[in-house]
């Protein structure tokens, strides 16, 4: 899924629409797009999560009309529209495809405890829409994503947005490959967000000092919200730390250096995104490190947990303690 810098860029795209009325709600019947008359009042970002706050527009909502009276069903059930062509409002863009997928409105993995996913807001109660992105999730403002290459069947078919929001000001937002759920509040804890000014270094250092492989701890969103697999690989290489080194065996200066690289790399990546610059990686998906050593890769993760591809240089990132032979090169 997109990492912290990417979701911050999505937040930047959404922010100009705050204060505008939502005219239609895209491809999902669960959001009642024909009657949806809400105002986007706020948007927040936390790590890999994006929150949109809506409130009924009293000036345009007919009496007794509750635009979000239908409950949002739990689960990631997909509904496919029967029409081959769906119009997203009288003033909005049109999308043509064999079918349009519905919005998935269900908790996603680690975020499930924070999302109600059940009933939609009733009456005049404002609610937050929590957006979590899939592997290739994205948001496009005032344009749609286009196919960059043909699929396996040779078709140049454009991606289908999961949700499109048209606004009274004339613009629109297209959401791709994402899940959504209603929540009574936004769950934002800036002390764990690696891109927040309130990021708590002490809490991060304490977590890294556990007797666990540091590559496991770095992906723990409780301490490093927004940190994903790319950042994990890059900061471990820059700090010269083997992914499976136990944090409890690393020196305080090594842990400090690792946190420094987390903040520095994430911040630089975000700046590059705002400047439309290409991301520069030193080890992620590489065959050799910048020094010229052969890179190794393997799947690492907690026992019974999610395994992630990891790249490392045995020479630049020696394992502590060097008890076991290195993994076989792939």
Automatic annotation (TrEMBL):
Cellular component (GO) terms are: nucleus
Q: Where is this region: Disordered?
A: 56-120
Q: Which keywords label this protein?
A: Acetylation, DNA damage, DNA repair, DNA-binding, Glycosidase, Hydrolase, Lyase, Metal-binding, Multifunctional enzyme, Nucleus, Phosphoprotein, Zinc, Zinc-finger
Q: PANTHER family of this UniProt entry?
A: ENDONUCLEASE 8-LIKE 2 (PTHR22993:SF29), FORMAMIDOPYRIMIDINE-DNA GLYCOSYLASE (PTHR22993)
EC number(s) given by UniProt = 4.2.99.18
Formamidopyrimidine-DNA glycosylase H2TH DNA-binding domain span: 190-278
Q: Which GO terms describe its molecular function?
A: class I DNA-(apurinic or apyrimidinic site) endonuclease activity; damaged DNA binding; hydrolase activity, hydrolyzing N-glycosyl compounds; zinc ion binding
Give a yes or no for keyword Acetylation in this entry: yes
| Domain of life of the organism encoding this protein | Eukaryota
Describe its function.
Involved in base excision repair of DNA damaged by oxidation or by mutagenic agents. Has DNA glycosylase activity towards 5-hydroxyuracil and other oxidized derivatives of cytosine with a preference for mismatched double-stranded DNA (DNA bubbles). Has low or no DNA glycosylase activity towards thymine glycol, 2-hydroxyadenine, hypoxanthine and 8-oxoguanine. Has AP (apurinic/apyrimidinic) lyase activity and introduces nicks in the DNA strand. Cleaves the DNA backbone by beta-delta elimination to generate a single-strand break at the site of the removed base with both 3'- and 5'-phosphates.
What GO biological process, any one, is recorded here?
Answer: base-excision repair
- Enzyme class comes to lyase
Task: Report the source organism.
Answer: Loxodonta africana
InterPro entries of this UniProt entry? H2TH_FPG, Ribosomal_uS13-like_H2TH
User: What name does UniProt use for this protein?
Assistant: Endonuclease 8-like 2
């Amino acid at each position: 899924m997109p990492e912290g810098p990417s979701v911050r860029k999505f937040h930047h795209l959404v922010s100009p629409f705050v204060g505008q009325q939502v005219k239609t709600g895209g491809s999902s019947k669960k959001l009642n797009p024909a009657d949806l008359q809400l105002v986007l009042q706020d948007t927040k970002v936390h790590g890999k999560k994006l929150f949109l706050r809506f409130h009924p527009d009293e000036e345009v909502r007919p009496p007794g009309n509750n635009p979000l009276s239908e409950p949002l069903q739990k689960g990631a059930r997909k509904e496919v529209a029967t029409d081959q062509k769906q119009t997203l409002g009288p003033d909005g863009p049109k999308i043509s495809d064999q079918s349009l997928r519905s919005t998935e409105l269900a908790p996603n993995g680690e975020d499930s405890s924070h999302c109600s996913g059940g009933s939609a807001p009733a009456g005049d109660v404002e609610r937050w829409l929590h957006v979590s992105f899939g592997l290739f999730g994205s948001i496009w403002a005032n344009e749609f994503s286009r196919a960059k290459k043909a699929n396996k069947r040779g078709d140049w078919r454009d991606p289908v947005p999961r949700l499109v929001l048209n606004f009274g000001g004339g613009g629109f937002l297209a959401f791709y490959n994402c899940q959504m759920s209603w929540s009574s509040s936004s769950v934002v804890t800036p002390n764990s967000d690696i891109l927040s000014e309130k990021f708590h270094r002490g809490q991060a250092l304490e977590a890294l000092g556990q007797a666990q492989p540091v590559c496991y701890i770095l992906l723990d969103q409780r301490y490093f919200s927004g940190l994903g697999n790319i950042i994990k690989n890059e900061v471990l290489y820059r700090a010269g730390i083997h992914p499976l080194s136990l944090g409890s065996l690393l020196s305080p200066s090594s842990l400090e250096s690792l946190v420094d690289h987390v903040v520095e790399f994430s911040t630089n990546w975000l700046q590059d995104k705002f400047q439309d610059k290409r991301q520069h990686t030193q080890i992620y998906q590489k065959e050799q490190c910048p020094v010229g050593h052969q890179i190794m890769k393997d799947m690492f993760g907690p026992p019974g947990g999610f395994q992630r591809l990891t790249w490392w240089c045995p020479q630049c990132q020696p394992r502590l303690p060097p008890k076991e032979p290195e993994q076989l090169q792939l």
